[in-house]
């Protein structure tokens, strides 16, 4: 009997420790995720990793609570612990809860609240339902409805760089991604209606899981930079079919939904904005700068006025193109 008692005592201590660790882990992961989201250039790879760990921690917590609820109910003879219900449930809802029947032998069902016959199964699929509700909220709150879009998708029509209309600037955006273990390179180049470079920037980002994530991160970085220098009317030129498809199908489930939605939100802040899908030849200069980061390990970030001296001849050649946009 002493051995059984010691075993029970050890199990109870382990349960208390596991319970505390799980809740502490959830709080820690939530804090890390909120901190990462709040910075200017968050890592999509790190955010994805945190969400996976957070989902697993919530699942473990749910399993623990489900088992604890089952044990408590069995210990009390299969009915509600009236005193505990009165301690934790609002007074107006106590009678409603006490009058609700449940069946511990039933398999969990996907229900939220009470079913038509007033039966609530123990441990309903809280995590799945919460995930679905979060996805719905994301689509409704973070992603602008299609009817309000002011950005335009324009298919590539020429292999030459074209000047933007008078009163509008063009921003060529490009990224370079090698693999998930190396830094990616990003750049943007801003030119006016005469083809004259106004400003440009280049930087490296920490390793990321895919080329698409690198492209999304680069576009977000470029958007924030142009907002910082108070650009109001702009045409963004990119050369990635995957990026355009992801941006203009924002309601489809994706681990990148948050990143896409914030890009769309940021695009809406411009007075006029177009996103142009171009051939790689059209985006040649920006691609060259981005590839210099991964090829030559030019990892020092910078932003400067004007153009790039080592590509000045290419910039001048493109500016001589007088064709209509």
TrEMBL record:
Record-linked CDD domains: RNase_H_like
Cited Pfam families: RVT_3 (PF13456)
Domain of life, per lineage: Eukaryota
InterPro entries: RNase_H-like_dom_plant (IPR044730), RNase_H-like_EbsB-rel (IPR052929), RNaseH_domain (IPR002156), RNaseH_sf (IPR036397)
Domain RNase H type-1: 172-291
Cross-referenced PANTHER family: BNAC02G40300D PROTEIN (PTHR47074), REVERSE TRANSCRIPTASE-LIKE PROTEIN (PTHR47074:SF53)
Protein name as it appears in the record: RNase H type-1 domain-containing protein
